[in-house]
Specification:
The complex is a heterodimer. By secondary structure, chain A is an alpha+beta fold. Helix content of chain A is 23%, strand content 38%. Chain B has a single domain, classed as Cytochrome Bc1 Complex, Chain C, CATH 1.20.810.10. Chain B is built from 9 helices and no strands. Chain B is mainly alpha-helical. The radius of gyration of chain B is 21 Å and the shape is globular. Classes of the chains: A alpha+beta, B mainly alpha. The A-B interface holds A 31-32, 34-36, 38-39, 41-42, 78-80 and B 53, 56-57, 64, 67-68, 70-71, 75-79, 81-82.
Chain lengths: 164, 219
């Protein structure tokens, strides 16, 4: 049969069924996908705000020895209040210079410990090693330890903490 | 291209055989009352899908059940829609399964050789009611709590073993977190497993025997 330049009835029905089917399918699928990823979207949209957290008088921290300070923050996840604890190593290099390191390993987020003997931060999970200044000394970490900005007001040390 | 893919799959899976055996059956001239079974199956699938989605956020614990549902309704995108479908679908399913049973009864479709289709259908009706009973507790609000208190108390009126049945349903003497957890387990595991198995037998019987037509004067 010679091919007609116009759509045959059969082709027309196929196209319409395909279009309507796609429309109905997406009307069902989009809410379903939105439902599942909704908390992730809220987390991205949630405007992260930063706060200055006091970590005590500067005099509490000895010179040259990284000292762990722990604090907790709460936030709402879904319907539930979640309390997360954080650790920060305060390293006073000298009288004028203080560095605050997050104790979260830059490899896969385990918590690092200060090892006095080796003068390194060691991660118990995958044997990451960081120098006293946070540089990668060995193991798998992709980047140096993360730092919090610091400031001193009236002798009290503050760190700038960004809430995710 | 699509034809080639289909032929490749068909050669291995026998798709066209499945189609011809299950769907190309001879069907007697029937009316709209004969669509209630398909409608029930459709509603069961809807309940299954929306139920799986609700389980993503729902937490079956006295501390969290109510709040997690509030979160589904107000915090999660389209949560109100999915819970709404599950809520209304539940009532519709009870109505449709019951109407399907009435049609089967009044048209005499349960008679030889379809007795087993009827028996599995009765199990399906009871399981559907069980789904309604267990699902009603899960929101863990006042209505849920007192409905289950009354429901389990009614089960206790059975002579002799009544108090035992009540305690077995509640998982103790009181309605508690244990009750909520077991109602949840029955609602999402035990009864769906029973219903799926019974639907399998039920539909196999329909494919094997075909459906009964409308009885005429001689029947």
């Amino acid at each position: 049969m010679a091919k007609s330049p116009h759509l045959s009835r059969n082709e027309f029905v196929k196209i319409v069924v395909g279009a309507v089917g796609t429309l109905i399918g997406s009307v069902i699928a989009l809410p379903a996908v939105g439902y599942i990823v909704s908390p992730a979207l809220a987390a991205i949209r949630g405007n992260s705000k930063d706060t200055w957290i006091p970590v005590g008088p500067l005099g509490n921290y000895p010179l040259g020895v990284p000292t762990l300070f722990s604090f907790t923050r709460t936030k709402i996840n879904g319907w539930e209040k979640t309390t997360n604890s954080y650790g920060v190593f305060i390293y006073r290099k000298n009288e004028g210079e203080t560095i605050a390191f997050s104790n979260i390993c830059t490899h896969l987020s385990c918590r690092v410990n200060w090892n006095e003997e080796r003068q390194q931060y060691l991660c118990p999970c995958h044997d990451a090693q960081f120098t006293i200044e946070g540089a990668v000394a060995g193991g798998p970490p992709p980047r140096p330890m993360d730092r919090y900005p610091t400031k001193v007001e009236d002798g009290t040390l503050f760190i700038n903490f960004v809430e995710g | 291209m699509a034809n080639k893919v289909y032929d490749w799959l068909d050669e291995r899976l026998g798709l066209s055989t499945i189609y011809s055996v299950t769907l190309d059956r001879k069907v007697p001239k029937v009316n709209w009352w004969f669509t209630l079974g398909s409608a029930s199956l459709f509603l069961f699938i809807i309940q299954g899908v929306t139920g799986v989605f609700l389980a993503v956020y729902y937490v079956p614990s006295p501390d969290h059940a109510y709040d997690s549902i509030q979160y589904i309704m107000n915090g999660v995108a389209f949560g109100w829609l999915i819970r709404g479908i599950h809520h209304w679908g539940a009532s519709l399913m009870v109505i449709f399964v019951f109407a399907h049973m009435l049609r089967t009864f009044f048209f005499g479709a349960y008679k030889f050789p379809r007795e087993l289709t009827w028996v599995t259908g009765v199990v399906l009706l009871l399981a559907t009611l069980g789904m309604g009973f267990t699902g009603y507790l899960l929101p863990w609000n006042q209505r849920a709590y007192w409905a289950t208190t009354v429901g389990t108390e009614i089960a206790g009126t059975v002579p002799l073993i009544g108090p035992f049945i009540t305690a077995a349903l509640r998982g103790g003497t009181d309605l508690s977190g244990v009750t909520l957890a077991r109602f949840f387990a029955v609602h999402i595991w035990f009864l769906p497993a029973v219903i799926l198995g019974m639907i399998g037998v039920h539909i196999y019987m329909i494919i094997r025997l075909g459906i009964a037509g409308i009885p005429d004067k001689d029947d």
